[in-house]
Amino acid sequence: LNVNKNTIANHNLLDLIEIDKKQNEVLNGDILFTISSETPEEVGLASLWPYDDTNIYLNSFCFGFRPNSKINNLWLAYELRSLKIRKNMYKLAQGISRYNLSKKSVLNLQVDVPSDAEQNFDSKFVKLINIQTKFLSNERNELLLLKKFLLQNLFI
C-alpha cells in the first residue's frame, strides 16, 4: 500500500496479496503503519487511507490502526511522521538485518493532541504545502526534459 512513501496512501499503487481470515479490511480513515523493513528509518512510517475502496487488505509488513476517538485523521497521519514521533519509532525498532516493531509498542506511544481547530489548521496547511511541492517538482521535471531536448537539438 505504498505506506513508506506517502503520508496519504495512493490507491493507484496497490499490490496483490493473499487474503487470510485473520486480516481486517482497510477502511476510510485507517492509519497504516510499516512494522518491518530493512532500515530503521522506514519502520513505523504511517499513512492515512482516505478512500472508500473495498477489498483492500494489508500485507504482512503493515498493520492498521482505526482511531475510535474524535480526531482529524489527516492531522494524525502528519503528526505520526513528525521528527518527535519518528525518533520514538527508531528507539522501538529491533533487529540487525531486518528491523521490526511490535504493534503493542507502537500503540503505547503517547501523542499530544491539540484542539480540533489546531488539528484542522495544521492538516490543511501541511496538505497545501505538499500540493505546492508536488506541483513544483512536476514543473522542475518538465523543465529538465525541456533542457535535455534543447541541448540535444541546439548543439548538433
TrEMBL record:
Pfam families found in the cross-reference section: Methylase_S
Entry keyword annotation includes NADP: no
UniProt GO molecular function: DNA binding; endonuclease activity
GO annotation terms (biological process): DNA restriction-modification system
Domain Type I restriction modification DNA specificity: 12-143
Presence of keyword Cell cycle: no
InterPro entries: Restrct_endonuc_typeI_TRD, Restrct_endonuc_typeI_TRD_sf, Type-I_RS_S_subunit
Keywords annotated in UniProt: DNA-binding, Endonuclease, Hydrolase, Nuclease, Restriction system
Family recorded in the similarity comment: Belongs to the type-I restriction system S methylase family.
Protein name per its UniProtKB record: Restriction endonuclease subunit S
Species this protein is from: Lactobacillus jensenii
